[in-house]
Amino acid sequence: MAIALPDTQLDFEQTVSTLRAQVDERLDQWLPLAPVQDAIASAMREGTLAHGKRIRPLLLLLTLKDLQRDTMVPRAGLDLACALEMVHAASLILDDMPCMDNAELRRGRPTIHRQFGEDVAVLGSVALLSQAFSIAASTAGTDASTGNQLVRLLSQATGAQGLVRGQFHDLREGQRARPLEAIAHTNRLKTCPLFTCAVEFAALLADTDASRMRHLKGFATELGLAFQLLDDLSDGLSTQQIGKDSGKDVGKSTVVALLGPDAARQHVEEHLARAEQHLIDAGIGDGHLAQLLEYFCARPY
Amino acid sequence: MAIALPDTQLDFEQTVSTLRAQVDERLDQWLPLAPVQDAIASAMREGTLAHGKRIRPLLLLLTLKDLQRDTMVPRAGLDLACALEMVHAASLILDDMPCMDNAELRRGRPTIHRQFGEDVAVLGSVALLSQAFSIAASTAGTDASTGNQLVRLLSQATGAQGLVRGQFHDLREGQRARPLEAIAHTNRLKTCPLFTCAVEFAALLADTDASRMRHLKGFATELGLAFQLLDDLSDGLSTQQIGKDSGKDVGKSTVVALLGPDAARQHVEEHLARAEQHLIDAGIGDGHLAQLLEYFCARPY
Questions:
Q1: Biological process (GO) annotations (chains A, B) (predicted)?
Q2: A134: nearest CA partner in chain B
Q3: pLDDT mean over A212-240
Q4: Nearest-angstrom CA–CA distance, A108 and A235
Q5: How many domains is chain B built from?
Q6: Is the ipTM above a cut-off of 0.90?
Q7: Nearest to B137 among A122, A143, A152 (CB)
């Protein structure tokens, strides 16, 4: 039996599923179906288009809706959303490899190196990263200097100070017992770079002022931390429920392992509350991003 | 005893070693010495700054000298030369990994995954690629739309139609017996993308016309094919002489294996002759690139 939702929440869920469909359609154009012998193109497509929450693209597109108060999603926003999802997919492909997390399942399917071999997994990731940078440099309807800024932001989010650093911290520090702050630091490094990049992309497209940009980044950071905690909490659920290897975090020093699930849930609430305050301070406390927070709060965990 | 060289060749060798020193100095600034616990930064530095021929940076900088008839190397050229060398270094780090060529030595030292672990090798490569794209988007003294074009060219050279495709071909096709054209095709895919990108970068900085650009790309392709053949010929030399694993190509279908070294040398000569013709057609048959060809011809192989 379908649960009756309040109208606004129903509207929001429809908005979200429309946006997801638009992102998937555009990704399908960027990464067209390839002949089976083109393993690189197939791996790029499979790693990116497999069923996912598309949270980073959504974050970008919902931010853009709130800033522009516009119902239409501009092509530039959609392309940048695809670039973010490609970088995210590349990072997942690499994180799953035997020399990293050695995962067997992702999004309900065998991981890319298990489907295509480790060599193709590495090369496909490099190709996805390259394509994402090219998309950022070619964003329709933005001036050239914005294009250069988009590339630099994407580089920052991806490179030695971004995702790379987060994954390295997680690999090297995750097995040791650590104080709460150290765990929160690793979580921040792992999840926040692309969350922050998503709102920065939207803010650049909408030509937002510095103060609003600061609050949007604060929002993205808090949301990222909440998201990472929810991910850790979901590690206790079965593989079937979450579609990827579960129990991978056993023995890993996560907030959940350190404080227990109840305190972790409390932390999630605190991050979401701080995220909401940033939206209010940015003058968009009543928009789509606020609804995204409600949606997170309502999530079972 | 030093061998007496003709004046022009001596001048050229001095130019080359000055440029190499400038590239290395600038790379040292982009990739500063990191504390030992920062394995990512250390791997990025070690993978890029280890002794190398710097052929791609030289190609860019010598092309720029020929096009601009200028003795000064502009900062933009030097930065782009560094970006090319970073992408090249990232590709070598990945190619050497156990899931690819499984090499133990590179540039006279243990390969990056042997020094730092496979996880750091992968992450360091991603960070180098990201930094290279950021440099291309930030090139001093170029207008913003040139920056966008530089990023797109670098993406083309690196991604699914560039280095990635070349390495994939080499891995999957290299073990089979192939006709000469198929081998030449793989060689073209492996070596030419960054050679072509180097001359395209220089041509963009110098605002070169389309006809000259076409000949420069023809030149880069012929030089790349000659270079790959020379590399295959050197595989017969000892590890000590070439500083990387030798004999890796045993059983691999190279031009050398197919036709023997004498015919391979003949092919080198033919590629270099065609490269020279492209320089003449581009109106720079008497410049630094022509001297680079002479230098290649004089190389012992």
A1: phospholipid biosynthetic process; terpenoid biosynthetic process
A2: B152
A3: 85
A4: 14
A5: 1
A6: yes
A7: A152
